[in-house]
Amino acid sequence: MAKRTILSIMRLFGGNERRENVQLPYVPGNAVEGHCSECKCDTVQTVIEVEGLQIKTTRCEKCGHEGPLMMAREKAKAALRDLVKKRNSTAPPKRTRRKPEDPAQIFRRLLEGKEISHAVKYSIKSQYEIGQVIKHPTFGIGVVTAILEPSKISVTFEDTARMMVCNRK
Ligand SMILES: [Zn+2]
Hints:
The chain contains three helices and nine strands, in the order αββββααβββββ. It has helices at 2-12, 73-89, 103-111; strands at residues 31-36, 41-51, 54-60, 66-68, 120-121, 133-136, 140-149, 152-157, 161-165. Zinc ion binds next to loops.
């Protein structure tokens, strides 16, 4: 008797036979796919209680177990698969290799606030310090950027940085 009532309700709301066409919101009597904790598999379940648009409780049509609707495992798997696919379809962030700075740009920056007129003539015998502006007979104006060894300095010219010998007595 009770079963017949449920079946007729299901038919009324487009239950069992038209399961694929069931649209939200669900109403009690609708059939849905769910995972039954008793059967330990996905079964057809009858919606018992609905709260808003959410199905609250269902009854397994196989064993009659009532409880909160658990997502069908196959469906859960499919949903996970979709998530994984979605994640993998968005390409990993491209590593943007920073373009090495243009030597002329570095040169200009190094010269900022410096007096070119104060540039000292480069000599292999002289001692230099970082930030000093020098004038080389071939390479022109340069800025000392590093003391590599007591007798070696790195000088940035407009075209490139060069290692220069210094402090030679
Ligand atoms: Zn069951």
